[in-house]
């Protein structure tokens, strides 16, 4: 186990690992459904409630895009051991990489290590002249670190789009999973809202991949 801890917040993406689990609860019902897991790849999941830094509730999509609910899920932090059995969640590699960079930058500043800006002369550099980007280890730390750079307008628009999309997806998932009004809607409308949630989650994942390459 390492000292790096990534703070989970509602709306953040994680990987869900069934780890032997074959079925989960369906949203809006007490029924359970079979998970379709292909070739051992992780499942897409969105945090819907935070119990602690290592336990969350998730909205999970299987590899066919079917939605499920997973509650009290063990969320592994970087360096945590994988459980022998039972489902769990983990941070994606790029999220762990960004957290490690943030921790290294904080450690360097605390120890007084001087890291000159790119292109700056190395002679006579002092800690007072050092301008490091402020990296927020909280929610959206990847986006915040990227925003510390001088992004071109088209990349900034992607960041804004991702933030707005995740906020809307979080509200939609909360309505589908927790609001009793959802069950009073016609079945056709429930199905449309579920399909909308799936499409928005896929869309968000694509934006994540684009942002990771900035």
Can you give a write-up of this model?
This protein is α+β, with helices and mostly antiparallel strands. It has helices at residues 93-111, 141-147, 153-178, 181-184, 187-212; strands spanning 13-17, 23-25, 32-34, 43-52, 55-61, 67-76, 88-90. The strands form 2 sheets. Strands 1-4-5-6-7 form a 5-stranded mixed beta barrel. Helix 3 runs antiparallel to helix 5. The longest helix is centred in the C-terminal third of the chain and has 26 residues, at 153-178. It is globular and about 60 Å long. It starts with 12 loop residues before the first strand and ends with a helix.
Give the arrangement of secondary structure elements:
Elements: E1 13-17, E2 23-25, E3 32-34, E4 43-52, E5 55-61, E6 67-76, E7 88-90, H1 93-111, H2 141-147, H3 153-178, H4 181-184, H5 187-212
Parallel strand pairs: 6-7
Antiparallel strand pairs: 1-4, 1-7, 2-3, 4-5, 5-6
Strand content: 15-25%
Order of helices and strands: EEEEEEEHHHHH
Strand order of the largest sheet: 1-4-5-6-7
Instruction: Tell me, rounded to a whole number, the average pLDDT.
Output: 81
- Total DSSP E strands: 7
Low-confidence stretches: 125-139
Helix and strand composition category? alpha+beta
Characterize the overall form.
globular
Rg value: 20 Å
Helix content: 25-40%
The domain count comes to: 2
Largest sheet: 5 strands, mixed, barrel
- The separation of the N and C termini measures 29 Å
User: Helical stretch count?
Assistant: 5
Identify the notable features of this structure and list them briefly.
214 residues; alpha+beta; 2 domains; five-stranded mixed barrel; two-stranded antiparallel ribbon; 5 helices; 7 strands; 19% strand
């Amino acid at each position: 186990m390492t000292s790096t801890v990534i703070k989970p917040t509602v709306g953040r993406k994680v990987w869900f690992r069934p780890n032997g689990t074959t079925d989960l609860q369906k949203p809006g019902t007490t029924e359970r459904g079979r998970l379709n897991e292909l070739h051992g790849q992780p499942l897409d999941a969105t945090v819907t409630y935070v119990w602690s830094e290592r336990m969350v509730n998730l909205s999970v999509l299987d590899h066919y895009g079917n939605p499920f609910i997973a509650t009290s899920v063990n969320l592994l932090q970087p360096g945590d051991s994988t459980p022998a059995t039972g489902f769990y969640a983990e941070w994606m590699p790029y999220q762990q990489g960004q957290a490690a960079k943030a921790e290294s930058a904080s450690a360097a500043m605390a120890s007084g290590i001087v890291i000159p800006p790119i292109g700056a002369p190395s002679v006579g550099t002092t800690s007072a002249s050092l301008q490091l980007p402020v990296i927020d280890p909280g929610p959206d730390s990847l986006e915040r670190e990227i925003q510390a750079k001088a992004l071109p307008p088209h990349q900034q628009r992607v960041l804004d789009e991702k933030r707005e999309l995740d906020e809307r997806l979080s509200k939609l998932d909360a309505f589908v999973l927790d609001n009793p009004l959802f069950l009073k809607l016609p079945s056709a409308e429930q199905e449309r809202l579920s399909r909308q949630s799936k499409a928005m989650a896929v869309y968000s994942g694509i934006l994540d991949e684009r942002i990771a390459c900035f």
